[in-house]
Write a structure and sequence with these properties.
alpha+beta, single chain
């Protein structure tokens, strides 16, 4: 069994130690915010923080993650209150959303090291591919997130994530609780 800490919770995976961390997170831990993109480390959709460093989880095995601290997009902020998440929404730097978790993780890692990055530093630190081409808005969002983190600016809250299943069942006639 491989033991590590995921989103501040100790976990043990009863999987082959050569299993990619991405597969363990998505398939065994049901943390599906981390996306499978290319599987070879080119796109950055699977980016997670490992001991605070943004790494591509498709390239890391469970054995390499043993004993380390992993943060997925779900652990970055459950209520989307992280400055990067707030700024991505405020700057409309999200289109289809597939690449967004990996970008948010890479940006959070950058801002933890450098809270006031230049445009060139952002471009160098965010290797993620975005098919929708949000790059100019992405740079603005990361700079804005830095200002928020430095308390030079505030952003009004982004919408809460999703909807409570009970509320969904009440609002959508096709969805009902089994007891109704």
């Amino acid at each position: 069994m491989t033991a590590l800490t995921v989103n501040e919770r100790p976990v043990r995976f009863d999987l082959d130690p050569q299993t990619p961390l991405l597969s363990a997170l998505r398939d065994a831990a049901n943390l599906t915010g981390t996306k499978y993109g290319c599987g070879v480390g080119d796109c950055g959709a699977c980016m997670v923080l490992v001991d605070g460093e943004a790494l591509r989880s498709c390239l890391i095995t469970l054995a390499e993650a043993e004993g380390r601290y992993v943060t997925t997009i779900e652990g970055l902020s459950r209520d989307r209150s992280h400055p990067v998440q707030q700024a991505l929404v405020a700057e409309q730097a999200i289109q289809c959303g597939f690449c967004t978790p990996g970008i948010a993780i890479a940006a959070a890692s950058l801002l933890a090291r450098n809270p006031a990055p230049s445009e060139d530093e952002i471009k160098a630190a965010i290797p993620n591919l975005c098919r929708c081409g949000v790059y100019p808005r992405l740079v603005r969002a990361i700079q804005r997130a830095g200002r928020v983190a430095r308390r030079q600016e505030r952003i009004s809250a982004a919408p809460a994530p999703g909807i409570d299943p009970e509320d969904a069942a009440a609002a959508v006639p096709a969805m009902r609780h089994s007891g109704e």
